[in-house]
Each structure stands twice: as C-alpha cells, then as structure tokens.
Amino acid sequence: MVPYYYSIATEQIYSNFQMQALFGINVTTVDITILNQDGFYPVVFSNPNFDTALYSPTVSYTIVGTEAIQTWTPTPLPLPTAKDNASAEAKNTSNTQAADLITASGVNVDIWTGAASQLAVDRPPLYTTLLDEMTVIGDSLAATLDAIDAATTVDEINNIINPPTGILSTGRGGDGDGPLDLNNSFYTEFNSVSLTEAETELYVPGTSTVITYGAVVPNGFTSNGNCFTTGDYRVQIREVATGMVISEFVCPLAVEHNEDVPF
Length: 263
Prior knowledge:
- This protein has 3 domains: about 5-75, no CATH class; about 80-160; about 165-260.
- Helix content is about 30%, strand content about 25%.
- It is built from 6 helices and 12 strands.
- The chain is extended, with a radius of gyration of 26 Å.
C-alpha cells in the first residue's frame, strides 16, 4: 500500500507525491522525527470493525507515538435502509447455506425438486433428511426476517445479523461445589458494536435456570448453587432484551481451572 501521512493542522491525509507538491517535503529523505515536528504522521490504515450495511463509517485519526492510527466510528443508517440491507444479508446467507447443502449432498437440484413433490411416506429416507435440513434453513431465515421487521433500532438489527462473538471462561465443579454447580464465569473476549456484556445472560435449558450477569459475581456469572441436571450440561448465552440465543455449548467439567469456550 502506498504510504500516506496525516496532518494535524488540516486533519487530512496526503500521499508521497502530495507531500512533495503541497508542502515541499520529500518523505524518503526526511527523518520521521522531523515529520512529526512538522505535524505529519505516517498513517496506519484499518477497516471498520462493524457492518457498513447497517452503519455509516466516519473516519478519524489518533496519534500514537510517531504514527496516526486510523479509526472508524459507526453511525446508524436510517432504520428502513438498515432493515432492507439486513434482510438482503440474511437472504444471501441462507442462499449460500442452501447452495452449500446441495453441493455437499452430491444430489442435483432437479432431483431435490422431484423428491420434494413426493408424499413424505413415499419419499426415500435420504431425501427426507436432506429436505429436513433445507427446511431448517428456510425456517431460520423466516424467523430472522420477522425479527428484522420487528426491530425498532439499528442496534437491534445488528444484534440479529451480527451476534456477538468472544470467549467465555467457564466450567462446573470448581471450588468443591460439585459437578452440577456453575463456576464463576467471565468473558475474556466480547466483540460487539451494539450489545454489551451486561446485556447478556446465561440460560440452562435442562433446569430452566436464568443466570444474570453481575448478580452475584461482578462482571461475570455464577449459579450460586446447582443449576444443572445430571447428564445435561447445556448452557445458552442469550440477549436479555429479546431472549435471542447467541450461542449454546456444553459446559465442561473444570474442577481446577475454567476452560475457554469460544462463541
């Protein structure tokens, strides 16, 4: 990439050629300390870490040492525009999933179509399995489109289309509390531009137990007693406001140390 230089005075960036033509500075021969003294800093470029189909990016530069670090601030697009864009994203994702399913099956789409037209009782089990998987994709898309349509803010839409990712340090059976008790659990990584850690909760489907963020352990979760039933150690990370499931995992037995569970 061609180097660019940020000017504190103008708050603009300039190429090598522009530095020479506009300011008489040959960046190949001038020491970086002199450039900095003159208010110019080499730019470290970056990409927006958010969905630009939902947020308009505004660029800024932060001086760190001898360099200008490029950063991006998201501004929500108009809600109708964001809904249209999000719906298109959801459809594209589902179309890709469906195409991948057909490719992985090795069965021509015309055969799928023919199988779908058969009565379920007459359909070979192989095709029933494939069609059931396709139905799951279609049902998921329908639910996603309904949720997008019902959203009242762009942040809500982003939570649907781009759910948080990260790492939860968790386990069960620590501190001598037994294998049915959730250890003190914390996010060691949480990535979202529209949802905070405190806006999530843990849910244990086997016992219908909701574990609230920060209720007992500051900046974390704990069941404060047994929350699992023997043999069922599933845990869901959910958005509090909507109950949307961000991730589901099987909580590991971690008597000595928690394990990192990515989501």
